[in-house]
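Q: Got a minute? One more chain.
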Amino acid sequence: MIAEFGVFFLIISMLLALLQSTYLLPFSALRNIIAATSPICAWLQALFIALALAALVTLRLDSDFSVANVVAHSNLSLPTLYKIVGSWGNHEGSMLLWVLVLAIFGALLAGREEIKLYAVAVQSVLCCGFLAFILSTSNPFVRIFPPTADGQALNPLLQDIGLAMHPPLLYIGYVGFSIVFSLGVAALVRGHAGRHWATLAHPWIMASWGALTIGIGLGSWWAYRELGWGGWWFWDPVENASLLPWLAGTALFHSNIVLKKRGLLGQWVILLSIITFALSLLGTFLVRSGAITSVHSFASDPARGVFILAYIFISVGSALFLYSIRAARIASEGRMLPLSREGLIVINNLFILSACATVLLGTLYPIFAELISGERITVGPPFFQSTFIPLMAIPLIFAAITPFAAWKKASLYTALRALLPAMIAAIAAAFIVLAFAHTKIVAAVCGFALAAWLTVGSLQWVMGARGKSGRYSVFLGHIGAACIVIGITASGLWKEEAQTLAANGDSLKIAGYTVIYNGSVDIKGDNFGAKKAELKITGADGKEITRLFPEYRTYDINSNNTSEAAIYYSLAGDLYSVIGAGGKDGKTTLRLYFQPMINLIWLGFVLMAMAGITSCLTKHYKPNL
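A: Always. Here it is, folded:
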């Protein structure tokens, strides 16, 4: 009966969402009742969806193989941890988690203020759409008969602790922007989006952006550790799907600062709120429609893709139509000069959105080209690196200048004069790189000089805080960006690689390390068998530094093979080791990578996420600090 209760809980939640959405009807007789009971209904809606997710987790823990979802994504030998977190490691479960986050955010927003009532009603409409999607095409509680004796395997690549954190954080980011979308639609209905709206939307924007930041960082860390290729970002379409709303969200929160401080850009901020959520929905479509093939994608069911595409057109199309007829009512409180802090923020926005457009084009072009010509083409890393990186470098340059520019009217000369220490630091960094770099010098000089410019400029600005806590969030965000620039530059330009067929006692040199292969042993895990190698790592002086134990696993249920990397972490860089299947004469394929300064990438993601979170928590946030 647990599966049937799960469906019942979803139906009750949908009815509650429909009830709340009637607040949008101008002649609804229930409006006063809904206004009085909105928080209660919103929390009940979230509660019933949570009970549905709990029912799915229970079915997986009980190994109830009369439920199709359990059969397809679990088995008796699957470790308990992955039975739990694997509940959202499949299409149906992930959509259930998505709609739960959607409902919880609606409940957190709920209140008796008019704009909140409208926003929660819009949120309920969005929730209705996803609940209809789950019940019609993605029901995780579908029974099969007769039940099977055992289930199939969870994708081995998903059997990682990152699965417990990565999807929920991404969904908090994606779905969090739905609140900003709902607030934007509410502002259009009311014909006003001023400083109060910006203050109300600010914590939602920053919390969503911060969660999406750490979610993307965890995803790249997972790819680095689990895929065994030594890299962390391949411009995979699903990776791009998370990057797109992050870029739009970056433009959104900067613009919202201008709206809160000066009462300007109200129309632009509302449009960005719609675009950001639209890109979040687009990511959902790409992952679940079967339009792309990726290790990250969940589904290849055309019916699901058509439903989500229709959902995007209806929800986003309706919002854009409302924007076209109501945006003119949202007035600015003054005028904006290009040479001012707000003007520089707008210029930054244009470059960030241009970079976003290049990623969108490179991601969607192969899909449309295949629809038209029937031929499958690939847009790879060279396109993205040659277009995205130069476009994003410009906002990072302006990120150091903008805080030193005055509101309303600024002197560029004054701002640049204040940044003289940052200029000196950038020049010094360039000369240091010129002295020590022997390859790819131009890219290295640009990357390290840009990071030094941003770091010292941000440090100068925060040192003038004088107790203004709001500056520390900005400082964390900019320092995080500088760390990522250094990590990407160093690991991308100076990565080293070595490969051999190793017998017991063979050694391989890489980046000043000597790696000695000490053979391998067969081990047995909960649901896999593995060949586990031992690698002795010594430095230039011959002294042992550490030992690494990479594995080559074969899973019991479907005989899938995975390479589990073993990594030696250091400030200078990571020594990354992977083994493959046995080769000739009992030798083992051994691949080694040295990734200089790559840990600065993860540090950068953490710092930027902290910037988003601390900005939410800063009491009486003041963007003019």
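A: Strands lie at 496-502, 507-510, 513-524, 528-538, 544-548, 551-555, 561-564, 566-568, 573-582, 588-596.
Q: Perfect, thanks.
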